[in-house]
TrEMBL record:
Name the UniProt record assigns to this protein: PACN1 protein
GO molecular function, one term: phospholipid binding
Coiled coil (UniProt feature): 188-215
Gene: Pacsin1
Pfam family, one: FCH
Keywords for this protein: Coiled coil
Superkingdom of origin: Eukaryota
Length: 262
């Protein structure tokens, strides 16, 4: 038998989470779709907070108005009346601050994300985004020749493993037949011919396997280079998104800082 052959190794599934494996680039493409969704999530988050700020500002205003009227119409007088009324004045000022926070969140932060998202992502008539399709097409084009050669390699590998199994089975049958006195010389000759044929098949499939493997290895550097070019484009797009959102989150944090805005 040509070389050593491990049947368990032949049947084991070779799975990997590597970016370079066929189709695994889809996770990189998905980041583009995720980026658009995360912009929506941030806008929803900002919009909900703005509603809370507006509601709190309105509650303070309503509370201040109601109690100011009660104090003015009540029996309290003098400096205590003024001191009590000062609480209402403070509430009005705080209400104004929260109203300003609401305005900043909606007019500045929300609109900033909305406009950036509109400029960065372009919807297609058939669905999805132009940027995601361009990345998908780029990766597919870069991977197609290598994936085709990889498929040839898998076919050649299976043929070689099958030939090895057939050779091992033929040799076992021939060895068993020698111990069986009931076998005729003609039957023994057929088994020997089978072994010889199996050895030839093993040699042919092994040569084919090694040839395709060599071809795959030769086209791998170009494959890696092409994939890296597309990945770098996606990475630049992702870095722009990350830097932009970092900037927006700092703006939001600043707008929510009442001490800074007061």
């Amino acid at each position: 038998m040509s070389g050593s052959y491990d049947e368990s190794a032949a049947t084991a599934e070779e799975t990997t989470d590597s970016f370079w494996e066929v189709g695994n680039y889809k996770r990189t493409v998905k980041r583009i779709d995720d980026g658009h969704r995360l912009c929506n999530d941030l806008m929803n988050c900002v919009h909900e907070r703005a509603k809370i700020e507006k509601s709190y500002a309105q509650q303070l205003t309503d509370w201040s108005k109601r109690w100011r009227q009660l104090i003015e119409k009540g029996p309290q007088y003098g400096s205590l009346e003024k001191a009590w009324g000062a609480i209402m004045t403070e509430a009005d000022k705080v209400s104004e601050l929260h109203q300003e926070v609401k305005n900043s969140l909606l007019n500045d932060d929300f609109e900033k994300v909305k406009n950036w998202q509109k400029d960065a992502y372009h919807k297609q008539i058939m669905g999805g985004f132009k940027e995601a399709k361009e990345a998908e097409d780029g990766f597919r084009k870069a991977q197609k020749p290598w994936a085709k050669k990889l498929k040839e390699l898998e076919t050649a590998k299976k043929a070689y493993h099958l030939a090895c199994k057939e050779e091992k089975l033929a040799m076992t049958r021939e060895a068993n037949s020698k111990a069986d006195q009931s076998n005729t010389p003609e039957q023994q000759k057929k088994l020997q011919d089978k072994v010889e044929k199996c050895k030839q098949d093993v040699q042919k499939t092994q040569e084919k396997y090694e040839k395709v493997l060599d071809e795959l290895n030769k086209c791998t550097p170009q494959y890696i280079e092409s994939m890296e070019q597309v990945f770098e484009q996606c990475q630049q797009f992702e870095e722009k998104r990350l830097n932009f959102l970092k900037e927006v989150l700092l703006d939001i944090k600043r707008h929510l800082n009442l001490a800074e805005n007061s």
